[in-house]
Amino acid sequence: MCRLMAYLGSPIIIDKLLYQPKNSLVNQSINAKELEEPLNGDGFGLGWYAREVNFEPVTFVSVHPAWSNRNLRNLAPKIRTDCLIAHVRAASVGEVSESNCHPFQYKNMLMMHNGGVENFSNIKRKIREPLTDELYNWIKGQTDSEHIFAYLLNDLFRNHKTLSPEAVVDAFENTFKALKKMMAENNIHEAAYLNMVVTNGLFIVGTRYVTDPKEEPLTLYHSEGSRYVVEDGVTQMMAPEDDDQAVLVVSEKLSDDKDWTLIPPNHFVIVDNTLNVRIRAIKA
Amino acid sequence: MCRLMAYLGSPIIIDKLLYQPKNSLVNQSINAKELEEPLNGDGFGLGWYAREVNFEPVTFVSVHPAWSNRNLRNLAPKIRTDCLIAHVRAASVGEVSESNCHPFQYKNMLMMHNGGVENFSNIKRKIREPLTDELYNWIKGQTDSEHIFAYLLNDLFRNHKTLSPEAVVDAFENTFKALKKMMAENNIHEAAYLNMVVTNGLFIVGTRYVTDPKEEPLTLYHSEGSRYVVEDGVTQMMAPEDDDQAVLVVSEKLSDDKDWTLIPPNHFVIVDNTLNVRIRAIKA
Amino acid sequence: MCRLMAYLGSPIIIDKLLYQPKNSLVNQSINAKELEEPLNGDGFGLGWYAREVNFEPVTFVSVHPAWSNRNLRNLAPKIRTDCLIAHVRAASVGEVSESNCHPFQYKNMLMMHNGGVENFSNIKRKIREPLTDELYNWIKGQTDSEHIFAYLLNDLFRNHKTLSPEAVVDAFENTFKALKKMMAENNIHEAAYLNMVVTNGLFIVGTRYVTDPKEEPLTLYHSEGSRYVVEDGVTQMMAPEDDDQAVLVVSEKLSDDKDWTLIPPNHFVIVDNTLNVRIRAIKA
Amino acid sequence: MCRLMAYLGSPIIIDKLLYQPKNSLVNQSINAKELEEPLNGDGFGLGWYAREVNFEPVTFVSVHPAWSNRNLRNLAPKIRTDCLIAHVRAASVGEVSESNCHPFQYKNMLMMHNGGVENFSNIKRKIREPLTDELYNWIKGQTDSEHIFAYLLNDLFRNHKTLSPEAVVDAFENTFKALKKMMAENNIHEAAYLNMVVTNGLFIVGTRYVTDPKEEPLTLYHSEGSRYVVEDGVTQMMAPEDDDQAVLVVSEKLSDDKDWTLIPPNHFVIVDNTLNVRIRAIKA
């Protein structure tokens, strides 16, 4: 079912996010705590921004499990960024291939998904139909995730001239509504789980969503504070006392402490470019 | 631009086809002789039939270059088959991924392609439109090749109830005609190179084709005889003298001898299940 | 800690061993039942004999997890053999690389190991010292396993002119004695777990061994009967009633039935070329 | 035979070194200009220093060819460093595995090699004998290169308390002398080609060396100037006019211009931490 994390805040060495916490994302690749099937060994990916160079993010993906990846292990202590997106995959729709690894990149945006749409092939061609040629051809892999993001981008660019958290929120609501309609029309009765994160390096919009309101969506937490600290595997968000600021959005808590807030079911978590966090219901 | 080979005949250890000839397919992965760009290092694939088990073929593909693949090296001297298809890739359209490796399999059929369609993305969605849902979802990768085969299969099953060399020939002609039309309507003026091979383990249909008759298609040879022999790197087709029989269809000669016949431009090579070989013009 | 299996008997399609049982080796790669750490996702390997071709085995290994390996999935239903060795790895000593994948091959012999020697680097150079140049250079990887097998082969060829189960048993005893001595002299106080399997395609010798008699060795079972059958995931050894015969040696039971016998601690399981099974104490 | 490059100077985006020059190292992976066998497709590796974090370098290696590596392509435009080491491999001794990829790292040092020792297995155990246990166990792969570097490090730390270009020069001369002796005593009569580069991120020592003075060593060039510029594939070393400084040491010229100086046969190129370059005969 995958696990994901997103960080926005003061520049940080990514080792502190990916390896050092007791329940770090790399540990979740072996043994996630809040999943029935604890294994997320079907590849991984990260994306980050090197703003001192330009606004386009870097992605680094692999079909190998995160836990044994030598390059990830070596890069993590040397990369410093103010915005990191990371994902470990448990393949449902789509083979284990680089094209199916999250995050997906479109220009300066990064996207990732935790969840899935059962019998996705029932609606695959429907979801592609309205896409512009450019977005149609942007799709490289087989995942439900990438197709849904293409739909989201298509809606976003049709309805909005500038990229903002509000525009992304709007596009998510349109996408989820459309998806529910397509599912109903194409014989998909199982709930679709749609915890999704979009960032441009300046803001983050995340969803904790399930199409069937009787079901519980997958877990999604956030944490905010003046500064993110990890010591002996225990993470801590320091209370605001200076200019440092940091927000984390994660599938599961990185350590057993009380700094984590569960996003309510079918709500957005919106982190703007001043690091203010808003929680808002998803109207879809 | 890729290189390919197909064998149909008396059971043979595949090492004799893949490694032993001087200009074997594995050697062509490093240094093809009849290509401007001699390198075919973007993965490889083979498919063969184990008729003692059942009629579905086995495929074995890798994103690693053929020349250094330990598993290929180890399997080759131990696999015996009467029908082998093999391909080394030089990526044009589509990333280096297992999904983009040839041969492509549909049930008991195997398909592979040497060539390409420039600006393929111009017609990608057109080519998918007429596909049945099943064939639409059968496509796993990004290549022009796989999309063209989906179109071919779609035409084949719509117009024919049983699989035969004639049915495949017919479907190829329809596909090439349709492709030329789509290209013309979507602003693709470059010639498309379409050396393609389809087999079901019992017969082979190959094409040596280019959409623009003023251009020379890529090379495609065949060789036939009573038995295929390779000694010190030199291949030989023994003259018919007993019941053994063998036919090879290859992108380039496996050794410098006179057993190879160049297929004429825009012609089919058709090997039926009695190993008779016919050469026929492609009407498209 | 790895999981392994070995089959000797009537020719069998290897899918029945690797995939079909409820607790098949491929399932053990995700979730082994009799290990504290259930994951064996650091590559896999198999070796089998194609006696219709020659006496040298084929090995097929990968650094990818077994559960998602497309080539393994495709090959398994088409390979038929009377002797299969297979291993899924949880890396302890040595990186995830093809050179560290079991089984190891020396001429017509295959070897694999489940267990480990703590602080192996303390004795690595000691264990290499007595080796002939040929065996010294035969070692390709970093594992304790491969080094111990090199020592075993060295002892075997020094003391025996022909290969037989008795010769292998003798070499194992010498090797385990020597290893205990080296460990004692080089400050290794932890018990070493040494469940090891050697075959030449005609006989199998397996050990269930731990250097410290106060410790329990890792599990190792065997099963024997007239024929191995798997239906709906449940394996069964048919009672001897005809000429068919089959023996399995496995780290853990392939399904919950009573056909499995736990080898006693520090005992050999010896399957000879008539498929007779003997259990004998290891004198070391 | 491999190709290599080393850069020391003003911080630079590594894309300018790896991709932009006409004859960039990535292009050399497909088609090196100054090698009989132009292909270097058996993996690649780079190492660089992120001094703003600490003194240990990062290494990034892959068994895939450099030309199609998505992660390398993505990382290159975002990594800025003042010391980069990079290598594309054509495997001679040792399989295609991450352990055999250059550069090799020991603490804050990086090492790489272009060349080879024929029949290296003749002297493999000799070269390991004098090593400290730590360096004995530091060796992870099978290459002649890594073994020679272990010998070099062993000599270096035995005879020198601090790391300096002079110390490395001294250790190289001892290593080459010892190697020639071992070769002579163990029946290796072919010339060994030893273009080797060692750096600690502050200085570089490179060798252009062949053990047989009658042979021509492999090419090795250097280039120095105030600033390294690449425009439309053409590299240029600007004449010293300001504080910017840069030195390149490369197997072959990155573009056809006159900024490149061939190191004389059997000479060192020594770049110290003020970017002064000295060329000095190798006494061995």
Automatic annotation (TrEMBL), chains A, B, C, D:
PANTHER family: GLUTAMINE AMIDOTRANSFERASE DUG3-RELATED. InterPro entries: EgtC-like, Gamma-glu_amide_hydrolase, GATase_2_dom, Ntn_hydrolases_N. Residues 2-274 form the Glutamine amidotransferase type-2 domain. It comes from Chryseosolibacter histidini. Gene3D superfamilies: Glutamine Phosphoribosylpyrophosphate, subunit 1, domain 1. Keywords: Glutamine amidotransferase. This is Class II glutamine amidotransferase. It comes from the Bacteria.
